[in-house]
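Quick one before lunch.
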Amino acid sequence: MTGRWIAITVVATAMATWAIGPDLVAQTQSAEASDAGKIYERLPGLDTQLIDKSADPCADFAKYACGNFSKLYPIPNDRSTFGPGAMLMEYNQRVLHTLLEKAAQGGSDRTSNEQKIGDYYASCMDQDAIDHNGLAPLQPELDRIAALKSKDELTPLLAHYQMIGVNAFLNYGEQQDFKDARKQIASLDQGGLGLPERDYYFRTGEAAEKTRKEYVQHVANMLKLMGEPESQATSDAEAIMQLETALAKVAMDITSQRDPNNIYHLMPVTALGSLTPDLSWTQFFKDTDTPPITEVNVANPDFFKGLNALLSSTSLPVIKTYLRWRLINSTPSEVLPKAFDDEHFDFYGHRLRGQPEQRARWKRCVQATDAALGEALGQVYAAQEFPPSSKQATLQMVHDIETAMDQDINTLDWMSASTKVRAKEKLRAIADKIGYPDHWRDYSKLVVVRDDAYGNAIRAMEFENERELAKIGKPVDRGEFGMSPPTVNAYYSPSMNDINFPAGILQPPFFDPHSTDAENYGHIGAIVGHELTHGFDDQGRQFDGNGNLSDWWTSEDAKKFEAKADCEVKEYSGFTAVGDAKVNGKLTLGENTADNGGLRLAYIAFLEDAKRKNIDLSQKQDGYTPLQQFFLGYGQNWCGDTRPEQLRVQVQTDPHSPRHFRVDGVVQNMPEFGQAFGCKVGQPMMPVNYCRVW
Ligand SMILES: [Zn+2]
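Model of the zinc ion complex:
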């Protein structure tokens, strides 16, 4: 994951999610008059109001299932994309808001966690204090840059930056060893860019050139706000762009990073001295409080070679300018004075993603508190919002879908018996994690001060990075969740070999206790199937049941898998998102495989469920048969709309396909869909030739 405000780096394959993560969702704030202030309730499991009956389900199923969604729920001005997932996030935010307002009222009877979440939120909400302080809270950091006398003094500063979340030159953290998942090791990765991805520095075409021009202007505007005269800010911004472009040149693109073998180079720490001799690695590990280590994963050794050449050839004043930019750019903008916050939004929210307005401050502060103290806030949230019955029902569905996968493996005509045995071993080893962790994170050492928004943000980041780095050399905690309980998302981790469903997503419309089984299997069942299939997509299949990167496939089966996957690469590469921006079939392969496999597994599991419960598959409800309800439930997961600017960012950075294709791209690969809706072979949603991996 890359983002401007995230915990210390996690390598690219660490998490395969169901939807776009908050790190890629524009940070936002607003005026009150627009529809950004609209109150959203939870949608029901199947919402027939969303269906556009004038559309032909066999021609464009997404349009049929969701055609009325954007008329009823247009994208609010404080978002760049909107759908049922975002609506549920809005709902969850209101729940959290009430909890936080109460905790923020103070009083001596607050628990330690209530003090922390309440004061974190209150300090973030205090825009007047933040504006009044100006850049004073950052002054010690700025002084430290100004005091650099030679490049030899860079190492301690870069180590410090890793701890406080400043993304300069590189990223450092811990990961499970790809080849021995029992081990937690140190991990170094490329970093230091302000644009979303390395190709943003090189892509041709009008839109790409415009973004680069606007980015340089944004850098100059921020430097001006920091006190530089106009002409200096302009030339400094050019120098920063030149340096970042040179860094991008030696960085690996996101599609190549999908292959775990490309980002795994375990080496003795002493080898770092020959890759990047200009940094003092002994000091770096000491200053980051890294436990004693003998080896480190260098995700991209070429980057670290290139970084050394760049550090040698770039003058100290340019490096200092770059560091000042990385400092201000990496600081969460909601704790910066309003002028900085507005300028940050103008580029990253408005120009890059097409979002008309900043999001209300309270929403951003709820999100920031969730990011900093997710399990303190989430503990209260889960106790209030997640009944044991929901956990039980979800667990039952997860088991049904795992059984469906076991059966599905039996029926694969292309896979040999020996690979099937290994696939089933892996399937049986998958751990299911539902709702929230059994053991809550201990925040007692994190200091939160009511009137110190910047300090709180930095201390929370340091606390999290220290927590991550302290794992190195220790056994893996298999109970840990990588998402906070209120999150509307889910993920599979190949190293843990587990599927994770936070409480936040286990509610209507995705899981609705009042809805039919058919609808629930289409909604949450397909999401469960999606995460499970990630264990067997182009990335996940390279890891075994113990979470180790090891090839358990016969070479013939692997070739057959690749040919089948290639069908999906071609299918999705044919989809145009906006203008000249097409879906990248290779970047989205894992997600598309998970979408396709997930819906099929949910379908098999639903048929079993219907058999068990004697559900009459011809009995209509709301005008739809159970199988039609199943597919409508799935289609309605992806209702909604995305602004054109955000669509472009999405296809260039996000492994998930745009929402429309997550529906049509999948159902056209399932003749069972065409049969349920009476389509004819040859119609768009029931083509003669279709793709199937799982
Ligand atoms: Zn996914």
